Amino acid sequence: MSRHVSKIGDPSPLKRLDEPQISKKIRLEIEVDENMSDNSPDRNRRANFSNVNGVNRNLNIHSVKPTTKKLIIKNFKSEPKLPDDYNETTWKKLSSAVIAIQQSKPNEYLLEELYQAVGNMCSHKMASELYKNLFELIDAHVRSNIEKFKTETMDRLLFLKKMNDTWQSHCNQMIMIRGIFLCLDRTYVLQNPNISSIWDMGLDLFRKYFMLHTLVQTRVVEGLLMLIEQERQGDKVDRILLKSLLRMLTDLQIYNKAFEQKFLQSTERLYAAEGQRLMQELEVPEFLAHVDKRIHEENERVLHYLDSSTKYQLIHTVEKQLLSEHINNILQKGLDNLLEENRLHDLSLLYQLFSRVKNGLQELCHAFNAFIKKQGRTIVIDPEKDKTMVQELLDFKDAMDNIVASCFKKNEMFSNSLKEAFEHFINQRTNKPAELIAKFVDSKLRAGNKEATEEELERLLDKIMVLFRFIHGKDVFEAFYKKDLAKRLLVGKSASVDAEKSMLSKLKQECGGGFTSKLEGMFKDMELSKDINVAFKQHLNINTPELMPLDMTVNILTMGYWPTYLPMDVTLPAQMVKFQDIFKEFYLSKHNGRKLQWQPTLGHCVLKARFKAGQKELVVSLFQTLVILLFNESDEHGFEYIKAATNIEDGELRRTLQSLACGKARVLNKIPKGREIEDNDKFKFNNDFVNKLFRIKINQIQMKETTEEQKATEERVFQDRQYQIDAAIVRIMKMRKTLSHNLLISELLGQLKFPVKPSDLKKRIESLIDRDYMERDKDNSNQYNYVA
């Protein structure tokens, strides 16, 4: 196995390098196993031993011991020395190269030669002097460049461009100089942490003289502010120039001190004046659009040329001067109009902008709440709007809900404020909204309401329930709703049983089973009445087949479930009386001990009538039936006779005759003609009556609910409330035995579900004391004791 020894010396000398090589020389002796050479195509391949004499080609490789590499390093016998004038001659070359770079002239030396020279000086401990010389050379150049600007009288834009050119040249020059003196940066500078790198040295010197000459600095900053202000006024400016000079200030680490503070001050002055002026000149939507545009523009400036650290303070300044300072003015001047006109885009922008400033959304929420209370009060308080109140409330609620959802991003604070405002204004007028909501539900659930499909009706009922939740006097709603529901069920005017039960289910879910127990009882009565009528007809067919066929349907009403109706005795035809007696006997035979009281006010009939034009069927009320049947005896009757024959109450009779003689379907003729019914009027059967329909419904003229009837309903509600108050007082006192007046009032207000005044509670307490349910304490008149 042969050995090879190779020697490694210095690299070949550079061209035009006159001085001798100065690198330390060493001699290396390397002993290498030829078969284990790294030059082998595959170091992991099995060695080839075919050329070794006396060795079997099939010899196992593991039996051969590998040879080791041997590396011998020896010093040269003597170290080369530099010429005595090497420092001066080399710096002369280097300084001429630096000056050529600074003056943008061609360099007479190769960069490799200059780089090698710097390396040699650093290796021979000349780095300190080299750094000092380089510092002085750059210092002089930077100083002369900056001082030139002291005497410049050109306009600001040209001044900025020239300064930018100087800065760009300085940066390019420092990059080239650092390339030559890279060895100095990597050795001497790294070994001395207190010394700046060559690049930082250039920045430090530029910053030093830039800040030293305040006039130059001031002109640059003012020029930058001038360009930015021109851009804000709509002029087109050189953004590249702005970006370069602002980057210069950032690199020099004087951006904040020299520029940012002045920039923010000028921004504040500009937008403070602009905000005051535009708030007077523009309408709120235009003002909001302008503010949004300004914020977008300032964000664009940060993106294009301002330092990112300026963004927060800059945007905050714009928001403060254009929004925070004018929040109340914006809300007072324009919010009501935006809400009334349903300007969703402008409201969305208002919410978005106000969310940027402190307390902006809170102020907006307060103003939103105040608007709803003011607008809602105008709907509820005005008696002239009673007919349209509920529909207006529904529309108003829909509009406000849409604004909260689409403009205010379903903010919970605004949703709660909306609910609070509705609950506040809807109870400003005691009891009336509850009554009108009940009547509105009646109008929608009554047969003949073809305005909506079942799905639309269900959605409408859900919306009505939202209004219902806001009402404090829910018992008032129950009273009127029960009265109207009774009419719908008894007269058969309910549009849909499913819709009725759906509404009942919603009320039960909202107020509990106690609230709807009587209403559910009404439905139960109607179901039981169907079964009773089927059994009664079977009874008639079996027991009284000789009677004239009369299809009579009777509804059995449990008195506690239904509204209270005033009993009215009228004179019925003998045939009807006969059927009444038979039904009474039939019913009492099955339900012993019960008492039946007939209510003719809610009855209705179908009559067959013959006219010249042919036979017709008339769908009429029981009172109308009694009047029409009289004309089977004679074609003409006077008012007094009809009144005596039917025994119908005077006012009810007049309305009945109006419906028959003065309505659309006039089966009677009034003599003399006129709208009002007088005592001396006569009525004649209208044999010439014509109508294209076979079955004609003659509507009873509904007596408008008089003030007395409304008061009667309210009085019943008030009476029910008194019973509830009495029961609550007794319940509390029975549990507590002894209680002070204030604590009793407090507990009552917590338990009662309807609005009540403390003075009313005091009256009920006095009433219970008079009835010996409780007594005043003998020693403390402000204390009550329960009397067992």
From TrEMBL:
Pfam families: Cullin (PF00888), Cullin_AB (PF26557), Cullin_Nedd8 (PF10557). GO terms for cellular component: Cul4A-RING E3 ubiquitin ligase complex; Cul4B-RING E3 ubiquitin ligase complex; cytoplasm; nucleus. Residues 432-661 form the Cullin family profile domain. One of its GO terms (biological process) is protein ubiquitination. Its main location: cytoplasm. GO terms for molecular function: ubiquitin protein ligase binding. Signal peptide: none annotated. Residues 1-20 are annotated as: Disordered. It is found in: Cytoplasm; Nucleus. Keywords: Cell cycle, Cytoplasm, DNA damage, DNA repair, Isopeptide bond, Nucleus, Phosphoprotein, Ubl conjugation, Ubl conjugation pathway. Belongs to the cullin family. This is Cullin-4B. The lineage of its organism: Eukaryota, Metazoa, Ecdysozoa, Arthropoda, Hexapoda.
